[in-house]
Amino acid sequence: MFEKLRTEAVRPGLTLAAVAVVQFMVSLDLSVVNVGLPEIAAGLGFGTAGLTWVIHAYALTFGGLLLLGGKAADRYGRKRVLLLGLGLFGFASLAGGLAQEPGHLVAARAAQGIGAAALAPAALSLLAATFPSGKERVRAFGVWSAMNAAGGALGVLIGGLLTEYAGWRWVMFVNVPMVACALAMAWRGIAAGPPPVRGGRPDVAGAVLATAGMTLLVFGVIRTDQYAWTSPVTLASLAAAAALLAAFVQVERTTTREPLVRLGLLANRSVVGANAFILLVGAAMASAFYFVSLYLQRVLENGPALTGVMFLPFALGVVAGSVLAIRLGYRLAPRTLLITGGFLTAAGFAWFGLISPDGAFLTDVLGPSVLAGVGFGLCLGPVTSIATSGVAPEETGTASGLLNSARQIGASLGLAALGTAAHHRTGDGAGPAALNDGYALGLTLGAALLLAAAVIALTILRRSGPTAAGQAGGLDEPVPATPSRPAARAGSERRTTP
Questions:
Q1: Distance from chain centroid for Cα 61
Q2: Which residues pair with 485 in a beta bridge?
Q3: Residue 485: φ, ψ to 5°
Q4: Together in a domain, 351 and 487
Q5: CATH number of the domain where residue 405 is located
Q6: 460 and 392 in one domain?
Q7: Is the distance from CB of 82 to CB of 109 less than 8 angstroms?
């Protein structure tokens, strides 16, 4: 009787619309602040190194708590966690827009990351449950994938337009109406669902240790602009970070609660290779958005809106690469696409490393943007497919969440390391030539990271046959697992374990 009433209460169209808005918003906030960074720095008085925490705060809490968010959605109810996450995300966005000093904005961005860590897995789980199979499922996940890509790609453009014509605070305020729309649609269109699962308790301690360890690691790296790598301050920070991460591993091995990650999962070469690949790619991509945005504004002296427009070739390149991955996925293995995409993106970044103080968009930015965008697009679907291949059905949700966490954490660690290196190269110089040297070094180091990612794919990942087009394009999304319903992959019945 309950199932009948629950089914009648479901409104698939509203559910899909709510999830689409949520995914667009979460993806948008990974890049929307990039073009506004110079204005944010001027408005709130951020230093060069401190400014990166506007990005770190969101990426670290989002990536570090993502797996815990998925566990919470399974235990306490997907709709409940979604609504709570939306409320927190909206409140944090409002607080960030009203920030009066650097600490206020960083705290608001961290709270946004916590809300996103609850939103993203709950929304994906709801989508999988609402569209369990058939063409409707393919279409629904196609919309989800499109919103995911559109949010990241259009974030820089939207951020630039808002910063120039409405002020930087609107890169935060813009989330509030989207949260209101998503709340209204979720409240009316998503059924309450069955009673929450009351099995094992989520591993909160593990999530806190992992996030704290990564945050302290990033903090230690960033502080090298003031303290040398061999100074007691830096060594103490890095040692404390290592201790926290070691404690996380121990907790995952011995906890009586549901571990965030079963450590045996990391014995799977596909899981390890894909996560190492996306960690390095995430590190390079986050740094590229940061450096290219600052190069276009501080060196070439373009306004925020025009800078946002100049990122469109990269976004279109990502779309083209994703479409190409779907077409080639019938004939080429995901590993081959991953290696090709990694080398193409590395070549684009090496080209970016040739920027000059007297350069121009057409000569220094357009070509590498298209090349790097196509290469990145080739990687997105195949890396998801590889990360969940050979994984037991009940752990595909965990494997997918682990991949997303690795990408966000890589983004923060990469920006910390490359940003620090660029700052050291720039030194005390504030002129276009000094800034250009720092940005060029950061982009060249990003090319080295991508080259390393391609080598990892070449040496660690096993050879395999072509995959389905849906998988190659990232449409074959995993169904998040619950204790009562094992996860499954559309069109796949893999049941091998590591």
A1: 11
A2: 482
A3: -140, 110
A4: yes
A5: 1.20.1250.20
A6: yes
A7: no
* Dist CA 410 CA 7 (whole Å): 40
The residues with which 202 forms a beta bridge, in sequence order, are 258
How many independent structural domains does the chain possess? 3
Determine the Cα–Cα distance for residues 64 and 199; give it in Å rounded to an integer.
23
| Same-domain pairing of 171 and 50 | yes
Q: How far apart are CA 66 and CA 171, in angstroms?
A: 23
pTM value is: 0.78
User: Which pair of structure tokens corresponds to residue 165?
Assistant: 């014509």
Domain containing residue 249? 203-257
40 shares a domain with 4: yes
Assess whether 171 and 215 both reside in one domain: no
User: Is 96 strand, coil or helix?
Assistant: helix
- 382 in Cβ contact with 338 (< 8 Å): yes
pLDDT in tens, the chain (498 residues): 334 434 445 578 888 888 888 888 888 887 888 888 889 998 998 876 678 888 888 888 888 888 888 778 777 888 888 999 999 999 999 999 999 999 999 999 999 999 988 888 888 778 777 777 667 776 777 677 677 777 877 888 888 899 989 999 999 999 999 999 999 988 887 776 665 555 567 778 888 888 888 888 888 877 776 777 788 888 898 899 899 989 988 888 888 777 877 777 788 888 889 999 999 999 999 888 889 989 999 999 999 899 989 988 998 888 888 888 878 877 888 889 999 999 999 999 999 999 999 999 999 999 999 999 999 988 877 887 788 777 776 666 677 778 888 888 888 888 888 988 898 888 766 788 999 999 999 999 999 999 999 999 999 887 765 654 334 333 333 333 333 333 343 333 333 333
